[in-house]
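Lecture 7 notes: from sequence to structure.

We start with a single chain of 78 residues. Read the sequence below before looking at the structure.
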Amino acid sequence: MRFSIEEAEKKFGELIDLAQRGEQVIIEQGDSPVAEIIPVRRKKFKLGVLEGVLTAEGMPNFFEPMSEEDLRLWEGRE
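Now the structure, written as tokens:
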């Protein structure tokens, strides 16, 4: 669908809705197209991407005190 700049200013919300529904929305100045409204493509979020990779056994327990060796390395003492 094609709209003049003036029409687009008045119907901006409607044009966004059209684009989200998959309509091609082109804004023209005179007879020349100057812009197109397209929806943002969102990546689908997938739960469990690291399932089986990260396990409780492989993760450090941040509530436990550090060993003397780990503390020495953390503080930069060798």
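Residues 12-20 form the longest helix (9 residues). Keep this in mind for problem set 3.
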